[in-house]
Design goal:
alpha+beta, Multidrug efflux transporter AcrB transmembrane fold, Alpha-Beta Plaits, 9 strands, about 5% strand, elongated
């Protein structure tokens, strides 16, 4: 394997023109991707074919539904959240009406649904505003407040039960939306400015909803992309200068990962993957650190060769022969770790995995071409300057005392390594999956604060539904339908985490009079069609009950939904022919929650098995492959235990971080094992081979760990929670991986590897 690698990489130094040609071609290809990827992709894209799609679904009654636009509490593009204690006062009512008129006057505001314009419950009734005129008496306003809270479409839906929080549901005319501010801060500012004309009415305005949440997340993402890439690269450069003590070496080492990032982000555009939320913040820093790891190992070896008196060309050629195989193995195993994410069911995670694989491959090419080329050129003349002043080299003997201490007690440290890994592994198994919509938002953003406000005042922004289908034999206005709806409504009201169920039952109960279900169902025709058809479609024999879900973490709703499904199944058995089911985005997220655990187990399990098999084959030893498992799994289970102890949950970002960290953590193990195998061939003393392996790669191991930790640590202060979690997990994993390689790996090698001869 080593000889094959030598022959395949020797041309980089011996034929520099060919290497420069390769770099130029890849750089040009990436540049075109940045400029206009369509110049190339259009050459391979067939003309679009329009396919007719056929409809399907449940059989209908044969009657087409009327052309009615149902009211939707979940269909708003944005929500203005208004909070005040003075809504039901003369000035408060005028203030709200003025705010609504001002918002509606904006070209990009298409429609506003709010409580004063809620449709009458009786189609024969007159449209009466819930707010009286400003000349009305205080008693009239008090009655209006009670009427609003008791209105099924208003109380708990458009107005909180305490009457202090009010929602304005806004739909945009997208032809006139000119900026993100129109959908976020612009709305808030317009509403607040309009309310200032009523200084006697204290009120606060915040904007949230589907579009503002997305815009806020993307805006934070863009800010973090530039800020933390700049800070991260600056910190990496600073640490490199401090550790290398030579500017030339730092410049050369930095060229490779920089070129790898440039190639990767340019080529990703050919596949349309540049908009993945992990790709323009996490991916560049990640592949920079991966490339820097191999680059540091290669540069340390080339500098040592130069110090011995070799020429720049000979030092570069020998350096890539000594370290190139280990760099190739680390890139392979890292790509395997990242590639295992492609087995995930979440599209974002799959895309991120493939992008990481591409980045690792391109960065490896950049490392093994750029660094030897630069070191064999005139730059290589001074590449070893500062080698004797390196902080780590000067103090390596002190750290070597730790390895010597371990070699004197290999059994004890081996047992400790295996035992601790097992204990932390079992602890990590207690991690529970969870997911929150607000995780992608800065915690102090207006959208996140308003989202929490709706959770507390209204029972949640997100909706779930119970779908009720009845058989052909049951008439759409049969009392059995309403009886089932009533029973489900009672089940929902018994769950404190489910907010404000709403169905035709609420509207029928609000109509005057009493009576049995048969009598109430006969009053369906009295309901306004937009109101009725939002929750009842007789043509398809479908009724819906909506309920609100708070952003507490979807795992909190697991027991609630499980109990609700069991109750619905029992109710369905008591009503033959009826089909009852849960639907909605909240329910879908809950159903897919377990998939996070499956994805993590699949990714880590697959990556671990393949990496173990690769190492066992490369080193031609099943024993070495098994030994490598402990120092590679130890940092992962430490990180898992940290998440458990700090009360964190298993999320999509955790799945990505665990798999990525495995790919990075195995790098140092491979460099140590590769040098150990080389030294073992030269000496029959097992302990001496371990000492020489540490002396040979210890500087690079410690240096790369310090640089990687510094790079990840720069993201600690990001306002994105996902980025902070990723950075903390990466820092902890990489730091403890060094301990595993300096403590447990030498002990396991000394205890279980057979001595030759």
């Amino acid at each position: 394997m080593s000889r094959l690698f030598d022959r395949s990489t020797g041309w980089i130094v011996d034929r520099p023109l060919a290497a420069w040609l390769l770099l130029t071609v890849l750089s040009g290809f990436a540049f075109i991707g940045y400029y206009d990827a369509g110049l190339i992709t259009d050459l391979f894209t067939a003309p679009e074919e329009v396919e007719a799609s056929g409809g399907g679904g449940r059989a209908s009654t044969g009657q087409p539904p009327p052309n009615v636009n149902p009211i939707s509490l979940a269909g708003a593009d944005a929500i203005v959240v208004v909070e005040s204690d003075a809504f039901f006062t003369p000035d408060g009512a005028e203030m709200l009406r003025h705010v609504v008129r001002t918002l509606r006057a904006q070209d990009y505001v298409d429609d506003i649904l709010w409580m004063d314009e809620a449709p009458p419950l009786n189609i024969f009734g007159l449209q009466e505003p819930l707010f009286p005129r400003s000349t009305a008496s205080p008693a009239r306003f008090a009655d209006a407040r009670e009427a609003a809270v008791s209105h099924p479409l208003v109380g708990g839906q458009l107005l909180s039960q305490d009457g202090r929080t009010l929602l304005l549901l806004i739909r945009f005319n997208w032809l006139f939306v000119t900026s993100d501010e129109d959908c976020t801060s612009g709305l808030q500012q317009i509403a607040a400015d309009a309310a200032r004309q009523f200084p006697t009415v204290p009120a606060t305005f915040r904007v949230t909803g589907r579009v503002p949440l997305f815009v806020t997340a993307m805006r934070s993402h863009e800010v973090n992309r530039f800020r933390y890439q700049l800070i991260g690269y600056g910190m990496i450069a600073l640490m490199s200068v401090i550790l290398f003590r030579g500017v030339t070496a730092v410049v050369i080492v930095s060229l490779a990962p920089s070129l790898g990032v440039f190639w990767t982000l340019g080529i990703l555009r050919y596949f349309g993957l540049e908009d993945n939320p992990f790709n323009d913040v996490v991916l560049p820093i990640l592949i920079s650190l991966v490339g820097l790891t191999d680059g540091v190992h290669l540069m340390v070896q080339i500098r040592r060769n130069r110090v011995t008196g070799l020429s720049a060309v000979d030092a570069a050629r020998l350096g890539i022969r000594e370290v190139g195989l280990a760099c190739g193995l680390t890139s392979l195993t890292t790509a395997i770790g990242f590639g295992s994410l492609a087995l995930a069911h979440h599209e974002i995670v799959r895309e991120f995995g493939w992008c990481c694989v591409l980045g690792v491959v391109l960065t490896f090419i950049a490392v093994v071409t750029t660094i030897p080329l630069a070191c064999s050129s005139w730059l290589g003349t001074w590449v070893h300057v500062g080698h004797d002043k390196g902080l780590i080299d000067r103090h390596l003997s002190r750290i070597g005392g730790l390895v010597e201490f371990v070699l004197q007690r290999p059994t004890a440290f081996s047992v400790a390594g295996i035992g601790l890994t097992l204990v932390f592994f079992l602890t990590s198994l207690t991690l529970q999956p969870d997911e929150r919509n607000s995780n992608a938002l800065p915690s102090r953003s207006e959208a996140a604060i308003a989202l929490q406000q709706i959770d507390e005042a209204m029972g949640g922004l997100e909706f779930g539904y119970v779908d009720i289908h009845w058989p052909d034999r049951v008439a759409s206005d049969a009392p059995e339908v309403l009886n089932v709806i009533r029973a489900i409504d009672e089940l929902l009201r018994d769950e404190p985490l489910l907010g404000h169920p709403l169905s035709i039952r609420n509207f029928l109960d609000a109509l005057p009079g009493d009576g049995a279900s048969a009598d109430r169902m006969s009053m369906l025709d009295l309901l306004p069609p937009p109101l009725k058809r939002a929750y009842y479609t007789p043509e398809t024999r479908l009724a819906k009950i909506s309920f609100r879900v708070q952003d507490l973490g979807i795992a909190r709703y697991g027991p609630v939904f499980e109990k609700l499904e069991a109750d619905l199944a029992e109710l369905q058995r008591g009503n033959p022919g009826f089909e009852l089911s849960l639907s909605g985005s909240a329910v879908s997220r809950w159903r897919n929650l377990y998939q996070i655990v499956v994805d993590l187990a699949t990714s880590l399990g697959t990556a671990t098995i393949i990496i173990f098999a690769v190492l066992a084959c490369v080193y031609r030893s099943l024993r070495i492959g098994l030994i490598s498992i402990i120092p590679n799994m130890f940092p992962l289970v430490i990180t898992g235990t940290y998440l458990v102890v700090t009360g964190q949950s298993l999320e999509l970002v955790s799945v990505c971080a665990f798999t990525v960290c495995l790919g990075i953590a195995v790098d140092d193990t491979i460099h140590f094992l590769t040098r150990f195998e080389e030294e073992r061939k030269k000496t029959g003393d097992l302990h001496q081979a371990i000492r020489r392996a540490f002396t040979g790669v210890g500087t690079a191991l410690i240096m790369t760990t310090v640089i990687l930790v510094a790079g990840f640590a720069t993201v600690f202060f990001s306002d994105s929670r996902d980025h902070r979690i990723f950075a903390r997990m990466g820092t902890l994993t990489i730091g403890t991986a060094l301990l595993g390689d300096l403590i447990f790996l030498p002990a396991l090698l000394a205890r279980f590897v057979k001595r030759k001869g």
